[in-house]
Amino acid sequence: MWDYTEKVKEHFDNPRNVGEVESPDGVGEVGSLACGDALRLTFKLGEDKRISEAKFQTFGCASAIASSSALTEIIKGMTLEEAERVTNQDIANYLGGLPEKKMHCSVMGREALLAAIANCRGEKAPHEESDVVCQCFGVTRKEIEEAVRLNRLRSVEQVTNYTKAGGGCGSCHEEIGRIIERVLAEQGAPEGQPARLSNIQKMKLIEKTLEREIKPALQADGGDIELIDIDGAKVLVALRGTCRACAAAEVTLKQYVEQKLRELVSPELIVEEVR
Q: Residue 186 CB: number of other CB atoms within 10 A?
């Protein structure tokens, strides 16, 4: 069961602006039924050149519907230039946050908005001018680059959460990795290294990764892990349950826990057990 905020639930149960604007000035379509999510956004400009009406039609999960509903509420009253600056994080924040693995719904909303704005201006949508990297879900290079750039993504798994790219056969993982390295390098991070995190950011990301990515796998086998402290690059943990007495505990720590934290948080992290 996904941990949705009350605002996500409310926008899913009572979505705003469902349908299609009559004689729209802008139309944006992204996703496909084959991929599981699809969104059609339409809007109309008033005499003041601001968005006076916006509606959506979405096929997808609760997050997709709530994100689309939130988007239409956010952009009403905006000029095209103002709407163009709305990010997927703005959509997620409006809803009080989204589960990490559902962030692609907010990204889909932004892509539909940019496509609708381009349509209004008589231009091609940004994603239509880029080659497809993930054939399984039809995700383009430009879409991946923008998701990495705006959200400071650091791993293929995060890119999958935000765009669905790489969530199928996996043949595009290597190319996604190269895109991540290049974009982060352009943003000032050394090539092949993640962007530098503040101590608070690192602590929160470690806690989040343990809770969402590591604990469930250990708990499925009767084990568990507890975060004790963080000392620089050292992550001090205590194994619980069956993990505590397991002969392969050291392997679990180094080859699973440590590698997962290095992949999703920072490659410098070292995991040590506190007994």
A: 12
Q: Which residues are tagged catalytic?
A: 35, 105
Residue 115 parent element (H or E): helix 103-121
Angle (CA) 147 59 22, round 5°: 100
Chain-centroid distance, C-alpha 27: 24
Domains of the chain: 6-127 (3.90.1010.10), 131-186 (1.10.10.1100), 199-273 (3.30.300.130)
What six digits make up the tokens of 37?
A: 């999510």
In tens, the pLDDT along 92-114 reads 999 999 998 899 999 999 999 99
Global pTM reads: 0.63
Residue 101 CB-density burial (10 A; 0-12 exposed, 13-18 middle, 19+ buried): middle
Three-state DSSP class for residue 155: coil
Which pLDDT band holds residue 190 (cuts at 50, 70, 90)?
A: very low
CA 106 to chain CA centroid, nearest Å: 7
Neighbours of 87 (CB within 10 A): 16
**Residues in Cβ contact with 212 at an 8 Å cutoff, skipping those fewer than 6 apart:** 100
* Residues recorded for the chain: 275
